[in-house]
Amino acid sequence: MSEWRHHAPEAGAQITNGLDFEDLFENAPCGYLVADGDGRLLRTNRTFAEWIGLDPRDLPGMRMTELLTVPGKIFYETHFAPTLRMRGRLSEIALDFVTADQRKIPALVNAVESSGGTEAGPQLRFTVFPAVKRRGYEQDLIDARAKAEATIVTERADGELREQFIAVLGHDLRNPLASITSGIQMLAKESLSERGQKITALMNGSVVRAAGLIDNVLDFARGRLGGGITLSLSSREPLEPVLRQVVAELRSVSPGREIAARYELPDPVTCDHVRIGQLLSNLLGNALTHGAKDQPVRIDATTAHGELIIAVSNGGAPIPAAALEKLFQPFFRGHDRVRQGLGLGLHIASEIARAHGGTLIARSDEVATTFVFTMPLCGVGADQK
Amino acid sequence: MNARVAGSGARTMMFAHGYGCDQNMWRFVAPAFAPDFRTVVFDYVGAGGSDLSAYDPVRYGSLDGYADDVIALARALGVKDGVFVGHSVSAMIGLIAARRAPELFSTLVLIGPSPCYINDADYVGGFSQAQIDELLEFLDSNHMAWSQAMAPVIMGNADRPELGEELAASFCQVDPEIARRFARVTFLTDSRADIGSIDARVLILQCREDVIAPPSVGEYVQGAIPGSELVLLDAIGHCPNLSAPGATIAAIRAFV
Question: What three-state secondary structure class fits A38?
Fold first, then answer.
């Protein structure tokens, strides 16, 4: 169909400067159609007539749309013709022509509207380039895109379901955990042997860790499901007791570790106290897990210059620069996969920081690895206005 | 909706474009009525210079959403007893709007209306369901055509001064995805239940030859709306407002 034959020039052809224009038109390496302003064909070249399988003498008088498939007709009438009328030209339009034996020729069409120097009104000129393979290739791309989009939709639904599952599971795990906690508390009131006291203390540490993990998982799932981190802001309660409580809890479950905390919090802070406690718990838990066991973990909580700053630092090997960038991504875990848990703690901490209109940054060198949380004392309100 | 108001007159004449284009469709027609009417042309959300971010697939998933916009625009402009000129799918949108808010338009001009493009038993809409499905698929392959950058526009107008230099380079520029959705609504909606007796005076303009809305469909619409008038324009194609503006203007003027 894209075969193109050269025909001998007609007898008596007009030759100008060595160019036979009649031949240039008739046997051009593209289909050439000339129509009146209404799209009625005035003349077509031989190349096009051969592609379409019609006698060139039968084409004049036909409507441009008669040569097109039904979608082509509709597109031509609703977009192509009006646009050509208004813009004067169009290029690279995909149209499908129908041959005399009902085959479809996918083509690309360029068109211009020209006054043509005639009194008969504007003239439309079309050049037609069959593009079977190109259009086929484009169709493949369109199909592939549609398939990819469909896959994404399914995956997203699956992901949502998974996260809902996590949320429900996390929620349901809290109840038995609460029973274990009260059981441990009741046991602690009994007169236990030294060994018994040691075991209940260890059990209590495990419960605290498990509860922390569940909180993080729930927050993460909620964030993914669109709930985000929700805050209940208050400036009435002092922050220090909350922070002290967190430190005491982790100290009790980390025997043999030195935790040095300094609190300098003279100004009230508008924040979600439970969330800031969770943030510190996550940072401190991270420092205790990854810091060198023989070096202290330092906590520095201060309010100054309109800001709350909580810094948590530990000694030990520095975090490589590449890993430092990814620390706050969910499920990020370094080389030490066994010790690291889910990799949600720092992510949740950074989300809590963000929800408070604050920042959480990490820096690490040979001396220490430090996480610094900073937020405005007046809370998020100032930012959100 | 990127509406433009011009002209002066007690009555308002509102022009609504069809599928595939924008308010520029009325370039040769609307100015003719400016001396006697307040004229309003606009782009539907998703077309031309409208705010694409306002496009809501659910709201515009049926012609009702578009009719709501026509009503809202007309009310915002304080239209009463106005003339609504709707081309192609806008003919149906106008009928829905006029039925829902009868005080807005007392005259409807329907250009190339079709209440249903798909053949159904005795009704001949012109297309089969399969052909319309094929159209929706085909539109994807002309993704670029919808948003083609228009550098050569001015050049192309050199020998056609009637278009004017300021012709928006964005003529008929439509977001491809929205064009596809609008095509779905336009060509798959069966509005035959929405036409029928209506208080407004109705003029139907039908082209002599039109593959989108053939004369038989124009006659069907006239038969379905009691008291409506049908004028057959000596024009070819689906857009007499562009290809035969003179005849279109004359027919509208004679009716209003």
Answer: coil
pTM higher than 0.80, yes or no? no
Domain containing A338 — which CATH number?
3.30.565.10
- β-bridge pairing B105-111 and B82-87: parallel
Asked if B217 and B225 count as a contact pair (C-beta separation under 8 A), the reply is no
The verdict on residue A3 lying in a domain is no
> Are residues A125 and A242 part of one domain?
no
Contact residues, chain B, for A139 at CB < 8 Å: 141
Q: Which residues of chain A neighbour B213 with C-beta distances below 8 Å? A: none
Q: Are residues A343 and A370 both part of a single domain?
A: yes
- Residue located via tokens 């996390």: A170
Domain assignment of residue A6, yes or no: no
A123 and A95 in one domain? yes
Burial string for A63-78 (b: 16+ CB within 10 Å, else e) reads: bbbebbbbbbbbbbbb
Same domain for A66 and A87? yes
Map out the domains of chain B with their CATH numbers.
Answer: 4-116+191-255 (3.40.50.1820)
Contact A71 B134 (CB under 8 A): yes
What residue numbers bound the domain in which A246 lies? Answer: 229-385
∠ CA(B159), CA(B165), CA(B168), 5° rounding?
120
pLDDT score of B158: 46
Q: Tokens for B149, please give them.
A: 């950058």
Strand, coil or helix: what is A277?
helix
Question: A137 and A86 share a domain?
Answer: no
Shared-domain flag, residues A94 and A171: no
Give the side-chain half-sphere CA count within 13 A for A72: 19
Domain count, chain A: 3
Average pLDDT over residues B27-36: 90
Strand-pair partners of B16: B42, B86
Of A93-102, A124-133, A171-180, B246-255, the range with the lowest mean pLDDT is: A171-180
Rounded Cα distance between B9 and B24, Å, is: 22
Residue of A79, A88, A112 with shortest CB distance to B172: A79
**Residue A74: closest CA among chain B residues belongs to which residue?**
B212
Domain closes at, from A95, A130, A165: A130
Q: ipTM value of the model?
A: 0.82
Q: What is the pLDDT of residues A63-101, one digit of tens each?
A: 999 999 988 898 898 888 888 888 788 888 889 999 999
- Model pLDDT for residues B34-86, shown as the tens digit of each residue: 999 999 999 998 887 777 788 888 889 899 999 999 999 999 999 899 999 99
